[in-house]
Amino acid sequence: MSEFNNVTIVREANVYFDGAVTSRKVVFADGSYKTLGIMMPGDYEFGTEAAEIMEMMAGEVEVLLPGETEWKAIPAGESFEVPANSKFGIKVKTIADYCCTYITE
């Protein structure tokens, strides 16, 4: 999906790691939401309460998912899932554009 229709966008940005990672929340009519963001090159660790699907729109990243010991390259156009109440590592090699879907059941 290249665009979202009939949504509300929260104006205030989510800013992490001194501005190296930013995103905006997009809320759908049914109350579900996603974030659209940019990550600058660097190594980061994120924690999540809800399960997530991270879709990489552009850029080069590697992720270390919970329970894994090997970093995995995620090319643009692919995604990865993160379970609820967990942490994951991400190495951003080039500026990365992402869309994160939150799974709230």
UniProtKB/TrEMBL annotation:
Keywords: Glycosyltransferase, Transferase. PANTHER family: PYRIMIDINE/PURINE NUCLEOSIDE PHOSPHORYLASE, PYRIMIDINE_PURINE NUCLEOSIDE PHOSPHORYLASE. This is Pyrimidine/purine nucleoside phosphorylase. It holds the Pfam family Ppnp. Its EC number is 2.4.2.1, 2.4.2.2. Catalyzes the phosphorolysis of diverse nucleosides, yielding D-ribose 1-phosphate and the respective free bases. Can use uridine, adenosine, guanosine, cytidine, thymidine, inosine and xanthosine as substrates. Also catalyzes the reverse reactions. Coiled coil: none annotated. It is an enzyme of class 2 (transferase). The keyword Magnesium does not apply. The gene is ppnP. The keyword Ubl conjugation does not apply. InterPro entries: Ppnp, RmlC-like_jellyroll, RmlC_Cupin_sf. Belongs to the nucleoside phosphorylase PpnP family. It comes from Thiomicrorhabdus marina. It catalyses: uridine + phosphate = alpha-D-ribose 1-phosphate + uracil; cytidine + phosphate = cytosine + alpha-D-ribose 1-phosphate; inosine + phosphate = alpha-D-ribose 1-phosphate + hypoxanthine; adenosine + phosphate = alpha-D-ribose 1-phosphate + adenine. HAMAP family: Nucleos_phosphorylase_PpnP.
